[in-house]
Amino acid sequence: MGSENGKKRGVGRRAVLIGGGVAVVGTGVLAREELARAWWRLPWMEKPRVDGELDYRAAAWTAAHQANSRRADRPDDYRIDRVVIHVVQGSYATALKVFRNPLHEAATHYVVGKDGRVAQMVRELDVAYHAGNRDMNERSIGIEHEGFVDRPQDFTKAMYEASARLTADICRRYGIPVDREHIIEHAEVEGTDHTDPGPHWDWDRYMELVRRERAKLPA
Ligand SMILES: [Zn+2]
């Protein structure tokens, strides 16, 4: 039965690929099967969304303008296996403001403030334009941090801790290993001309915090 099925499916698929009047018998069933498997790719069948819904409970929702991201259905259409660390070159308020601007052409999923506040601006299932590289945008979650790359005093204890909790939670939910291959800086993204988070971002300290937070969460 299995092989007969397979044969029919094979013929059906070829017919569909060729197109035209050849595809007559059996393609209805095939099409339904294909659709059932790829339902999330169809705009009218995408996962239900609720306004203001958060992926990270400790965040506050502030929507970025939809022009700064692309609707998707991650992790079903794109696997999420990277977290990209950014520094805003500005304040928390500035980050929220520019990401709400449709002309900015960029936004991250999250913004972390010096006081440890976290805003979610793009749903994780969507592709935010933050890394300046299409492949990286499609596979990553972007986290922006308040402050300037040349001002180490901007990177506060509260910010490191809040960001580490967020990154640990993301890593848990998508099974991302807690290491520097998977948690990267914007400056490490191929083709970027950005230098953030810069030389004052304390990676040893940050990764230690992420590891500690990750250990507190379920496997
Ligand atoms: Zn950046």
Tally of domains:
2
How many individual helices?
6
Helix content: 25-40%
Q: Using the alpha-carbon principal axes, give the shape.
A: globular
* Radius of gyration using CA atoms only: 21 Å
Order of adjacent strands in the largest pleated sheet: 1-5-4-7-3-8
Task: Spell out which ligands are present.
Answer: zinc ion
What's the CATH H-level superfamily name of the largest domain? Peptidoglycan recognition protein-like
The termini sit apart by 41 Å
**Beta-strand residue fraction:** 5-15%
Low-confidence parts: 1-25
Question: Structural class, from helix and strand content?
Answer: alpha/beta
Quaternary assembly: single chain
CATH first level of the largest domain: Alpha Beta
Total number of strands: 8
Keywords: Cell wall biogenesis/degradation, Hydrolase
Organism: Streptomyces omiyaensis
Domain N-acetylmuramoyl-L-alanine amidase: 69-198
EC number: 3.5.1.28
Give the helices and strands, then pairings.
Elements: H1 2-18, H2 27-37, E1 60-61, E2 69-70, E3 82-87, H3 92-100, E4 110-112, E5 118-120, E6 127-128, H4 134-139, E7 140-145, H5 157-174, E8 183-185, H6 203-216
Parallel strand pairs: 1-5, 3-7, 3-8, 4-7
Antiparallel strand pairs: 2-6, 4-5
The protein binds zinc ion.
Short description:
Helix content is 34%, strand content 12%.
Question: How would you portray this structure in words?
Answer:
The chain is an alpha/beta fold and 219 residues long. It folds into 2 domains: 2-37, no CATH class; 60-216, Lysozyme-like, CATH 3.40.80.10. The chain has 6 helices and 8 strands; from the N terminus they run H-H-E-E-E-H-E-E-E-H-E-H-E-H. The chain has a 6-stranded mixed beta sheet, with helices on both faces. Strands 2-6 form a two-stranded antiparallel sheet. Helix 5 (157-174) packs across helix 6 (203-216). It is globular, with a radius of gyration of 21 Å. Mean pLDDT is 85; it is low at 1-25. The chain binds zinc ion.
